[in-house]
Amino acid sequence: MCSRFYVDDSVDALLKELDPGYVPAGRGREDRFPSRFSLAVCVRDGHAAVEKMKWGFPRGMSGGNGHGSENRDGLVINARAETVLERPMFRDGARSRRCLIPAAGFYEWNREKEKAAFYRLDRTPLLMAGICLPDPEGEGDRFVIITTGANRSVAPVHERMPLILERGQWKTWLFDGEKVENLLAFQPGPLERFQEYEQQTLVF
Hints:
Blueprint: E1 5-7, H1 9-18, E2 30-32, E3 37-44, E4 47-55, E5 57-58, E6 69-70, E7 75-80, H2 91-96, E8 98-103, E9 105-109, E10 115-119, E11 126-134, E12 141-149, E13 160-162, E14 164-165, H3 170-175, H4 180-184, E15 192-195, E16 198-201
Parallel strand pairs: 4-12, 7-12
Antiparallel strand pairs: 1-2, 1-9, 3-4, 5-7, 6-7, 8-11, 9-10, 10-15, 11-12, 11-14, 12-13, 15-16
């Protein structure tokens, strides 16, 4: 599951591109963890808008067992692309409350608990598909990251990876509900992996 990602100034530049009203924070590189706030792009009044949201749905949020990936605190932090339209916790959000979570890269751990970082070959930011729902505690929205089967870049480390969309797909994901199923089946492109002092590029 995707349980940590990181952002940097390149993410600020992308957010400004998606939402011209966004004011870059200029924080440099920072890690993002479940239960903490991060920036996501959602739809407000028919336009893309950057908002601060908390990562993770409390168990039972929006009804019943979500069949997503939970962390140690019992937060559901991921939803599987293969079943997100079927599960009670996720299906309404997948149909009408989709979002994008920008990142410079994300981390995964293998069975030996060794951490690997993944990022685009050209170092441009990632756009991870997600869904968001109102926080039952009244603190704005919460989001989960949608995951899919790992591509050849990630598979040596983990069997799952975030559903990473291309720049040309972000408007479709946010605004076109009729094409959601097609995007949920999208296979993300190759990524670069950095693990300890080893760096390698794996392509199809």
